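Homework-ish question, so no full write-ups if that breaks the rules, but can someone show me the predicted structure for this set?
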Amino acid sequence: MRASVLTLLLALGPAQSLPAQELNVFAAASLTDALQELAASYETAGGGRIALNLGASSTLARQIEEGAPADLFLSADEAKMEGLERKGLLLPGTRRSVLSNTLAVVVPAGSRLKIAAARDLAGPAVGRLALAEPRTVPAGIYAREYLVKQGLWERLAARVIPTENVRGALAAVESGNVEAGIVYKTDARISKQVKVAYEVPAAGGPKISYPFAVLAGSAHRNAALRFLAYLESPAGLAAFRRHGFLIVTG
Amino acid sequence: MNGEGWRIIAFTGGVAALATALILPPGIALAWLLARRRFPGKAFVETLVTLPLVMPPVATGLILLKLLGRRGPIGGFLYDRLHLDVVFTWRGVVVAMAVMSFPLLVRTARVAFERVDPLLEKTARTLGAGRFRVFFTVTLPLASGGVIGGALLAFARALGEFGATILVAGNIPGRTTTLALAIYQSVQLGEDGEALHLLGYAVALAFAAVWLSEAFLRRAAG
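A: Not a homework solution, just the prediction itself:
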């Protein structure tokens, strides 16, 4: 019995120490493609293993609040980060925002729907509009904010199909089960099955900001800071820019 | 309990009951076939029917989404011909629940049919009763405990369905949000109090359904 327990411990030993070298990065779903590319190049350059947990920032923030072992949080809105900061869950002095984005109205690739302005969304041709969940998920909150500002929310609310995260809204449009959706411009670019029907001008749209921060509970603060620095390095910013993100200077 | 909570419970109970009612006729027929007949491909049918019980619910949901979407073979037909949407509507909830709980009904009802003494059916036949009459006056009444137990078990499973539902019907407040989805939503919103509140009702409903089901199955076995 004792021997088998010992064997078990020995077997578990190396496996337990493995995650120690791995950095847990919790990131907004809209950052998926850019981050996968950056994590791969970081690993190739010998920076260490990056484990990405991608999802709605609201879901990730909840997971962090409940004690998930995150080292770095890359949120799609300031409110989620604000909430974690108020709870003392961020490593002080590490929070910063360098990325921005814009919204786009997408329709299935074969659709003949014309959206020349936001108000066209309220027309009869748009029976269903996919948005990331507009009460919790940043992309949905931004979209709702925009539609409220345009005076369209009350008319459109009943047509909204809320999804798990922004990529869910994109998938709903791809499948043709909804007539249109509002996603980030960066999401619209990654799919050949949708086309952008209308780009929300940066000036008239909501202020979109992606705050990054190291978490106070991180056991690998230095490694997290190193990866954060890599994301903000000229090479990192160039990759984000290539994926369509806007870089906030200053 | 607030009005919204009651509305969600009424909706969940309603769609689960509808799903159970829909699968009763085909479920009973299939259970009887599996219990009483030999036919080519029987093992395949048995396995196929059990799949939703063991497959990841989201996998079942994905299959349904592909079939029932506006571009799917079934959903496309319904949408083009009848302008009827299944995906992202309450109909989607019913279909997801029905498919997910079908195996429980069939498996339980099948055991009940197997327990019915074939001699009684034969006797009824020799006394001149037709196949259908024998089924409805001898077989089904004798197996009723097991069939009702199975239906209640299926109903309980339908009440808690999540994985397939969220893919096929989404989580649209006031339209497709069931109890399970509402709990998830409350947790996402950080409303743990509301989530726990709903959780209490989910436990009570599931407990009552399973307890009743067991009572019928015990009676059927006894």
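Now go work out the reasoning yourself. Hint: The interface with chain B takes residues 56, 58-59, 62, 65, 128, 133, 135-136, 160-164, 172, 175-178 of chain A (CB under 8 Å).
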